[in-house]
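Recall the central idea of this unit: under ordinary conditions, the amino acid sequence of a chain determines the structure it adopts. In this exercise we apply that idea directly, starting from the sequence alone.
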Amino acid sequence: MARSAAAPGGVTDISRTIDAGAWSPYQIAAVFIAALAIILDGFANQALPASIPMLVKMWHVSRDDFTIVSIMGYAGMMIGTILFGIVGDKAGRRPTLMGCVLLFAIPTVLIALIANIPVMTVLRFVGGMGLGGCMPNAAALLAELTPQRYRPMAVTSGIVGIPIGGTLGGFLASGVPAEHWQNLYFMAGLVPLAIAVLMFFLLPESPRYLAVREERKADLVKLMAKFGNPIDPNLPAVDSLDKPAKIKVGVGTLFSKEYLQDTIGLWGAMFFTLLSVYGVINWLPAILGEAHYPGPMTGTGLMWFNVGGIIAALGGAACFNTFGSKASLIVLAAGAIAASVWLYFIPLDPTQSATSLLAALFFQGGFINAVQTTMYALAAFVYPTEMRGAGVGWAVGFGRIGSIVSPLVGVYLLHAAGPHGFFAGFGVTMFLSLLCLAMIRKHMPPKGATIAAAVPATES
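Accordingly, the structure predicted from this sequence is:
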């Protein structure tokens, strides 16, 4: 049985206790449940682009009519990411994550019951708030449930649920007839409702969140016992890697001298990467449909874009452990640029084999999604516990501005440069993401390197 780590002054150091202990089956199960929420988040998020070719046919509208729906959905995600990141820091990761799952699941089900764009726009905005709120809380919870040596893989394996959910959505969409488009939204909404019930009974609170709240000491003692790392209930609990709980942290702290360069780099990389990934996802099914590919191909293209993301993100997480995050992310971003250039030269001709097109989408989606998903692990590493939810939330929230403008950028590229210029244009945005990643100072170190304690936050 693991022993709690003693810190100077006769206190229990929760961070060191977790890092020194085994990754228990209970912790692994909790990470898996959180990852399920992220998978369904990814599915619900991509239900709209997957359904656009169907709705164009059944509602007798144009592709561009859904631009406002996409924009408002991503606007909701931006607000939800920032708002619920802060709420998670104050109220706890567990209740906030459960609430966000319900907030995106219920509007998704309701979309299946309506048949007009204005109502869909409102429902996507509300659901988008829940979708956005899942990200910072899941990333923080996954990081804080896991020993340091497993943390990059755990966080990325959970966040990689985004492309897993997108793959599931693309696969199911390829088999849904246009006249039964409602089934896509029923599936994307009802299953998360069931997962929310599962989370209520099985998902624990973050032990590092509990450690800095004396009034939750009894909950912490019970939780650490379940982890197989029992602690002495008579000793005070601390988190030595982070600042004292009484220090008030505001958004200004993210731009203090200690975090300024990292915050700017993270925000820029999130912006350009989310612009790229959602720019392609928004319009890929519609582009393939307008190129007269058969109906199943529109979902298949989206599926392979996401399949690549799953494989590359897991590979990127493994590279994090060996080579560190800086080298890994720069190589992944360079791969996304190369795949975008490749797509520029592939003809969109349904009379020819689609193998090259699907392969290029596989690599483009792989590298772009890999950068996006692994950046959550990096963001969780950059900031200490008391500002982690807010730090990740603000970074992703700013990145959501990229997703908000992505429908407009996509439409502009399509009208100005055609579908091939569309793909190449997102190679340019990934180059800008690469530059931002290179400026971040506090990257996850290569294997064997020493990890310094977090810089204490100051009042703001």
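The domain at 12-208+248-439 is CATH 1.20.1250.20 (Growth Hormone; Chain: A;).
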